[in-house]
Amino acid sequence: MVTPDFINTEAFTNLYLLLVNSVYILFPLSLILLLFSKISFKVTIFLLGVYASYSIVIPYLLKVPLINNFVLTFGDYSFFIYLIFSLIFGFVFYHLVNVAFVVGGFLLGGLVGYSIGTFIISSNGEWLNNLPFSISYIPWIIFAILGVIVAIIFSKNYQSIISIISVIFGSFILSFYTIYLLEKHTSITIGNNSLLSGWEQLSQPEFFGIFISLIIYMILGFFLIVRSNRKKGNN
Hints:
This protein is mainly α.
C-alpha cells in the first residue's frame, strides 16, 4: 500500500516516535481519555500545565537573578516551592485554555462571517447602495455577530466539545496501539507487520485495522458520553 504524502512528513515521523517511546504513559492515558472523557481532558490540560511549568517556565524564571536568589535562600524547600508554583500554573493554564477555546470560537465564527460578508459585497446587489453605511463594514459586522454567536455556543457546550475531542484523541492513540502491540507482543501477523518499522511501509491490512479500531473506539466513547448525559438528565 502506498501511503499518502502527508504521512511521510516529519510531523508524522515524530508522532510515531512519541507513540512508540511513550507507550507506558500514552496507552493508559488513551484509555482514560476514551472511557472517562468527561473529566480526562480537563486533567490532561492541568497536567500539561504542570509539566510546562517544570520544563519551561521554572527554568526560564531561574535565569532571573532576583528569583534565583530567592529560591536559593530556601534551598532545602525548593522542591515544595517548585511544586506549589507548578500546581498554581497548571490551574491557571487550564483556565487560559478555557479562555483560548472561547476566543478560538469567536475567531472561527468571525472568519466564516467575514467570508460571508465578502461574498455579499461581491454580489453587487442594488440594495447595497441604499445602506446608511459603507459596504466595506459589512464583512466586519458579520464577523462580530457570528463570532459572538459561535463563542457563546462554544462556551455553553465547552464540556461536550472537550469530551468529543477527548474521545477522538483517545480512540486514535488506542487504535494505533491495538495494531502495534498485537504485532510486537503476539505471533499475529497483520499484513507484513511493517507498522513496527514506521508509517512509511504501512500495509493495507494494518491501515484498515487501525481505521476499523478507530471507528469502534469512537462509537464506544460516544456511547459512554450519551449514556452519561442520559443519567445526568434522569437525575
